[in-house]
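Re: the 401-residue chain
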Amino acid sequence: MVCDVMDVQTGAFLFPGVTSLDSKATAFSVRPAQSRADRRAFIQFPYDLYRDTDVWVPPLRIDAAKLINPKKNAFFEHGDMQLFLARDNAGRVIGRIAAIKNGMHLKKYDDGVGFFGFYDVVEDAAVSKALFDTAADWLRGQGLRAMRGPTNPSMNDVAGLLVDGFDKQPAILMPYNHSWFEGFLLEYGFERKMTMWAYYAHTKFFNKEKMARGIALLKRRYPTLAIRQLKMDRFEEEARLILDIYNDAWSDNWGHVPMTDAEFAQLASDMKQIIDERVVVFAEIEGEAVGFAVLLPDLNYAFKTIPNGRLLPSGLLKLLTIAKSGVIRETRLPLMGVRKAHQGKAIDTLLVHEIVVKSLEVGILAAEMSWVLDSNRVLINSLESMGGVVEKEYAMFEVAI
């Protein structure tokens, strides 16, 4: 699909390699990213756009390429995606977007909702509008009636638009974008569908006495309730257990889409390389696992040191050295769930408490708990009672097409 070349009034672009255009109308086009060179340009654009943004963390190029490769990303077993690039009349990339059809979402909801993702654009509303128009046209061609996002490419991947906290470095597997993006979405007609929060907790603010009293009360109420850590020698079996609990625990949450076995196997394989089994815990009642929590080291502190996201020739050695050195003292809690039959029993509080206690034992200083749906007031109250504070705000947006 090709967006007609159009005239656009624009000002200076804000990153190296793309200088200010003439103040007169400037032509640009939006076209599918089809060739190998186009896909390389699609991956490269964020490195240019955020080059002077100190808090932005360059993703590993190998990971960025895997996400959009139908042969390497399990998402494509049920989903489809079309990439688009906006280029100025000198051929320079000035924006990108992906139009996404998520088969698992449509199977669960049958609501005609498609998605957009991988959205990055220079500070030019006309370019942004053209990107959204083109993505919407593609989704309509797939028989879809609404466009929601951003998801990269699904809610089980990096998802959400940063709307507050632009001065903070994103945690591992969390998005970052420029502050003008939200305004472009609202101008286009998008409405906010859900707000998500990133809570930050430092161990020095952890109220151990208060939590201990609450946990003692919980254990008196449920005397067979116990916590155990992940067993690495049974990793595949443990991973399947996490998937089973996750898909049950989150099934009623806004926007939840079940992970397929292949998608979770892909995620588990990636996480196996970096997890510390001491901070991956299960809650059991009468020996049955009813909940889990996973804490990951915030490798963004390591990725930040890798030049331009390239592992070779020296990036891989830097990554391995930092990851294994013990100098990363900040973490992220990206996955936690309690089976629906056991929700409302404060087991999530017990899991968070156990994670914090284990973190203190292994020398972790702080954790980001993200993201937390604004509708999950029980978890929000629990996090705030433990000293967690909101550090970043994210949102999902939707527009009828």
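Residues 1-25 have pLDDT under 50 and may be disordered.
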